[in-house]
Structure formats: structure tokens, C-alpha cells
Amino acid sequence: MARRWLAGDVGTLRRLHAFLQSWGIINAHARVRARRGREPAPGPDSVLRLAPLVGAAEGVEAALTGPVAGRVAPLAGHANGALQPAIATGAQYYCNAMPWVNCTSLRYHCTKVPDVDLCPLAYA
């Protein structure tokens, strides 16, 4: 019913709906507002209350093994800090666009020009 009000490709809308439904975000079992003199329909207020809360590790695992698995390569060695050599070696990285910003903990590294590192604010 609501799809006719959404603009966009039908395939994209279906993929978006499948993604939201896989995470339990779509509230298909919402309680209907009661009219005067009527009791609301029995049942949970929201599907979100029934969905279990997951941590970051479970969320990443679900994203990598879910219905869209194979599109994103898993990050090997992420849990043991192998992808953070700057922190392990003590090297300091500063943003090339804003040189006063230390972006050692989080930076966007240019793969074409090896000496370019940007902080999240400069990248946005």
C-alpha cells in the first residue's frame, strides 16, 4: 500500500524492503489505533521489541552471511588489531586537508596517491 507513494526503481525498493525486513526494522505488526469505544488489537506494540539486540560482532557476522553475502569481503584479522598498524607502531597521521587534525585512529587513505590521508571531516 505504501509502495505507490515511494519513488524509485521497483527492484531497488524490494532490495531495501528485504534488507529492512531481515533486520526486523519494518513494523508490520503495529497496533492499530483504537477508535472511540474500541479496545486496541491484542499483540505487541512493535516488532522491534521482539527482535533480540545484537552486538557489533553479531551484526557484522549477520551482514556477511545474510541474504546479500558475498558482496562484501570479510575483514581478516580485524578482531586482533592487525588492521591498525599505526596504533601498534606508534606512528602519527595528520590530515592533508587540515594539517592540525590528528587522524591516527580514523583516517581515509588514498590508494592512488600514497601520501594522502584525510580525517572524516575532510573526507565528508
Automatic annotation (TrEMBL):
Residues covered by the SWIRM domain: 1-37
PROSITE patterns: SWIRM (PS50934)
Domain of life: Eukaryota
Gene3D superfamilies: Winged helix-like DNA-binding domain superfamily/Winged helix DNA-binding domain
Descriptive protein name: SWIRM domain-containing protein
